[in-house]
Amino acid sequence: MTSPLTTPAAPSSAVRWTPRLWGTLLVLCAAMFLDALDVSMVGVALPSIGSDLDLSTSTLQWIVSGYILGYGGLLLLGGRTADLLGRRQVFLVALGVFAVASLLGGLVDSGPLLIASRFVKGLSAAFTAPAGLSIITTTFAEGPLRNRALSIYTTCAATGFSMGLVLSGLLTEASWRLTMLLPAPVALTALLAGLKLLPRSEREKDHNGYDIPGAVIGTASMLLLVFTVVQAPEVGWGSARTLLSFLAVAVLLTVFVLVERRSPGPLVRLGVLRSGNQVRAQLGALAFFGSYVGFQFLTTLYMQSLLGWSALHTALAFLPAGALVAVSSTKVGSIVDRFGTQRLIAAGFALMVVGYALFLRINLDPVYAAVILPSMLLIGAACALVFPSLNIQATNGVDDHEQGMVSGLLNTSVQVGGAIFLAVVTAVVTAGAPEHATPQAVLDSYRPGLVVVTGIAVAGLLITLTGVRTRRTTKSVVVAKSTSPEADRVPVRD
């Protein structure tokens, strides 16, 4: 398939990105930026929302959980829908829904309506995320071209998350509604630009119908899994409700596998998981995001509850990690070309383990530069290496007509990993928290949670190391999608 956006050229050094190609990438990056921005901004605004709308703590939780439920529960459906109905069409419609939901979320005066708007935003993100990633992987040829594009794409996610932390602290001072409204004009601008710049994509022609049973069962199982994990810390992990919900999830997933094995046009082709690299990418995404979300949760509690730092002060403490990602991630593509994804992911997980372990030194009167900053820099470097490499590894070697499906799988692993491991870390900390505790006792209850976070990163490292080879092998891939049979090929290391 030839991309009309790249100039057909032979050597990789001669490949030129046209202005329209840059515009396409910027539109997709804007959507990823918005997803990350929205996730990080809402957390800081929760106390103000609760006070203004008179919401209980359990209701406030659903402002966050509603987004996670819509996002994590519908990613598989979103990815396959992009393949079947056209990536451009799905991306633009979902982005428009995101803009409208953002506007409504900033205008409502009721908790249930705000939660509903958050769920709709998560639902729309479940379609924009896999559609956007698959547009990149089908527009940029596998190899150095795609690696560079994906490194820029993932940089925008890190930048959005970091900026969201800072912007939320500033905007909430004026009104929490601004944190809800801000994404709307950005999404609308990206939508208008996308109508002109995004390449038209054809629907998959050779599919064997729509896998309606798989879509219903798969979506139901993911929704129930995320809902159960989110609610488990509140109702109890050993409660009858939680255990029965997990049993129902297991039954649904078993039925889903049976349906997919027999479906002529499955929602998820299970054969894709026969690839060791694919399985390691999915498990790595679980461990990577799960450990980071748990770390951020505990660190935020530590800084605001124990040290008494403001929301803005806390955001600035995280900023070095985000800044390091933003500065360095664009270089990761060329590093992947040289060393391969497995080695970069392993190196990133190693840095992450050291960063988490160093954070165990925290006390009630820390010196930021000596205690907290080293961990932030190590974790920032780890994120810069791991996140783009996981995206590259998951999408390499996958046919164009299945890029949406694989993108949905990867994003599902990220979201489910975050939900599950955050719930686990929360349970560990809650179990060790004594009543009427002193600040030191509260800090001591955080340490087992930090140990769990470190252990999750260690598991990710061990999984990744199973794919690291002592000798690198090379394969040839097309650098630019070209109709020319003489198009040069360059070696890319796995």
UniProtKB/TrEMBL annotation:
Keywords: Antibiotic resistance, Cell membrane, Membrane, Transmembrane, Transmembrane helix, Transport. Gene3D superfamilies: MFS general substrate transporter like domains (1.20.1250.20), Multidrug resistance protein D (1.20.1720.10). The chain crosses the membrane at residues 21-47, 59-78, 90-108, 120-140, 152-172, 178-198, 210-230, 242-260, 281-303, 309-332, 344-362, 368-387, 408-429, 449-468. CDD domains: MFS_MMR_MDR_like. Residues 24-472 form the Major facilitator superfamily (MFS) profile domain. The keyword Plastid does not apply. This is MFS transporter.
